[in-house]
Amino acid sequence: MVSAAKATDDGGATARQVFTSRLKGRPLVDSDGLLIGRVSNVVLLPLVGNEPPRALGLVVALRRRSIFVGFGRVGELSLDGAHLLGGTVDLDPFTQRTGEIMASELYGRHAAGGIVVDVAIVRSDPRPGWEVSAVAIRRGLVLRARSPEIVPWQDARELFDAGPLTEQLTSLREMEPADLAAAVGQMPAARRGQLAAALDDEELADLLEELPEQDQVRLLDSLELERSADVVEEMQPDDAADLLAEMPAEQRERLLLAMRSVQADELRRLLRYDAKTAGGLMTSQPIVFTPDTPVAEVLARVRDKTQPATLAAQVYVCEPPAMTPTGLYLGSVGFQRLLRRAPSTSIGECVEARLFVRPEMPERELAARLAAYNLMGVAVCDSDGRLLGAVTVDDVLDRLLPVDWRAGGTETR
Questions:
Q1: What is the value of pTM for the model shown?
Q2: Which terminus of the chain, N or C, has less C-beta within 10 A?
Q3: What pLDDT was estimated at residue 4?
């Protein structure tokens, strides 16, 4: 069986353990019971301090590819398999990140005086998610086919000890980007370089967006040119343009030439604006729709977890084309207003206001405009009324705060 009750000293039972090897081949089904794919592995994290190793999620085989489904999306693990809580799954191919451990990699390893045959996980308490609870060890000769002994994970902790760098990387990955940037800012240059090499491109891009520009440049200098280009392509365009503006012209041009042409052209356009203006602060990738788009489609895009929350708070309606620079800008809509409208309503009927600013507006005047109208973001348009981009309130705050605000500004109270 897949699950087994975990006995307590007083004869009761706590959460049910799930043995990872027995999940292999089990179906992952959606909330309607329809098959999505079949489980092929379980992703674990190494030790951080004395806490049990965490279980991140499932690797699921789906039509000749493997995808990752985090345990936050899984409502139940049972003999029947895994049951999705609802919604959609990310179909991007699964890639094992530095530090992550596949449960199957532990089978056959020596630990606790025997051979590992299985690893058990259990729902964690009080923190949400799943964690490693026990390890199944076979002792003696395999030919005797003795039943394995179930031992606490602490008896085989060496399986999950990946070294100080990986342990630090694991703990850093659980931080909010701003807290991560503060922690990285206090590290020696050598350790920063090690972490940069261990993070994947998207993670490193998130980190760079929270660091002061000078620290961003130093960190990129520790990478090869092609890796630097890949990381910058993952950044938000406004943050990437700010970073490139801090580089010497020759270094900036080398990096732009190493990037894909579409992204490079977009950044060249942003770099034309003075850094202390609306054009210098704006992102060229706000969420834009044509007026005939139904509200249901807009909300689906807003719910996309890859969209930054500040950008998803407000969408912009324009005549085609919907890529900046767009057709005529028609106005903006906050997502809360969309929640009150019927899904079939066209977004053009929901437009709240056509307020916009010019790209040359100074940053302080822009900040005053946002405050006066209680805006989360504002459109930036050219003289022909085409949408060039949008400025969000977090970018204005980031520019107006002191340069060293991150050093003491991320502590919660």
A1: 0.63
A2: C
A3: 42
